[in-house]
Amino acid sequence: LGKWAKVMAILKEFEEQCGTPTAKLRQVADAMTVEMHAGLASEGGSKLKMLISYVDNLPTGDEKGLFYALDLGGTNFRVLRVQLGGHEKHVVKREFQEVSIPPHLMAGSTEALFDYIAGALARFVATEGEDLCLPPGRQRELGFTFSFPVQQLSVASGTLIKWTKGFSIEDTVGQDVVGELSKAMERIGLDMRVAALVNDAVGTLAGGRYNHPDVMAAVILGTGTNAAYVERAHAIPKWHGLLPKSGEMVINMEWGNFRSSHLPLTEYDQGLDAESLNPGEQIFEKIISGMYLGEIVRRVLCRMAEEAAFFGDGVPPKLNIPFILRTPEMSAIHHDTSCDLKVVGAKLKDILEIPNSSLKVRKVIVEICDIVVSRGARLSAAAILGILKKLGRDTITDGEKQKSVVALDGGLFEHYTKFRNCMDSTLQELLGDAYENVSIIHSNDGSGIGAALLAASHSQYL
Ligand code: ADP
Ligand code: MG
């Protein structure tokens, strides 16, 4: 076999293994629905944890006052301050600040991480303007968005089940993360109460509902991926508490850990998983989300370089570095519309130190990006269909016009246009006529606002 024929063979094989024909997507959606039932039936009944959030009321629009939120979920965290004006006025003022997390803190100690976060929060509180006055004698209240799997003990406490997305701090597992944050705030003399602990998907659901009354589910496509939705409380067999007055309970699916024999997995995915910080876990997340997409592309390029001299003799040294090709760069490559693919050429030179790439090499790279993104976006659409099916909202019965709105957030959804468009057209392909009653909205920073709203509705002063 000639070298180029070998390149084409690797590409073709990869494309076939990543294939997501409609019939396969329906199997994935059905498997998602089945696992949702299993996860709701009993603790540990499924790979899908289907965690009870203790959020049984979503925002109404009447929430009032000054509240803070803290969003910890990936490489950055955000602190947020909102002044809620109540009915009709809604968000009167909102300010935020983004702070990056030094990598050593992602694998250090619980105390060091939470001290760092509390410190940044305290500095942000210190910038509170005179116009935002807290009634005298009142403690500031915070909604804590913590986007890792947590076993909630109440709406404002919960223990970490495991880290994901590159975090690995052993001693936090099993600890109450609200307790850890509160201790860190105390250590630096910041007087603030955590009124709600929420996952980012739950926060996005709350933020989405605040703006659109028909929002019933939220999906995060960022560094990782997850979803939350509103379930009927009586459809949660593992819930032994009192039935909430609303009759509803928000479920944090933790769908990043979904896995099914119907998922199209390749040798590259297996390699990525085996060398990850959490082998065998978060398999769905590892083929869908922003942390991993660029890395899958890098692995395919490595094989082409090794076996088919794709970049000339030998493997370019930079190409051997795990995670060197990040998803935003991959997105720039994928969206290059110039006829000689100059953005692809420039990225190859800047990131991988590969100068003078030929047009046909560049085209293959764009093709690999397309295969990886189509698979991720189409599977995301199938997973959303799984939720709609669970709620019986995937078909139109007797011309019924019940709207189902899904609030989406996360950097991947927000910035990767081809991912977003592919997901949307796949949803249309899967839903047919029922697509009319389903809409996807971008809930910009829904998780931060959502956490502040949930802090307001769980305030100690109500
Ligand atoms: P998190 O998920 O950590 O809370 P975000 O929702 O902001 O944070 O998502 C960040 C992720 O979004 C990044 O890890 C990256 O994978 C993806 N992302 C950010 N910018 C872009 C971009 N321009 N194109 C594609 N993906 C992007
Ligand atoms: Mg986030």
From TrEMBL:
Top-rank taxon: Eukaryota
Protein name stated in the entry: Phosphotransferase
Reactions catalysed, as given in the entry: a D-hexose + ATP = a D-hexose 6-phosphate + ADP + H(+); D-fructose + ATP = D-fructose 6-phosphate + ADP + H(+)
The entry's keywords: ATP-binding, Glycolysis, Kinase, Nucleotide-binding, Transferase
Name of the gene this protein is made from: LOC113691857
Originating organism: Coffea arabica (Arabian coffee)
Gene3D superfamilies, A to Z: 3.30.420.40, 3.40.367.20
GO terms, molecular function: ATP binding; D-glucose binding; fructokinase activity; glucokinase activity
InterPro entries xrefs: ATPase_NBD, Hexokinase, Hexokinase_C, Hexokinase_N
One Gene Ontology term, aspect cellular component: mitochondrion
An individual GO BP term: intracellular glucose homeostasis
Enzyme Commission no: 2.7.1.-
Residues in Hexokinase C-terminal domain copies: 217-456
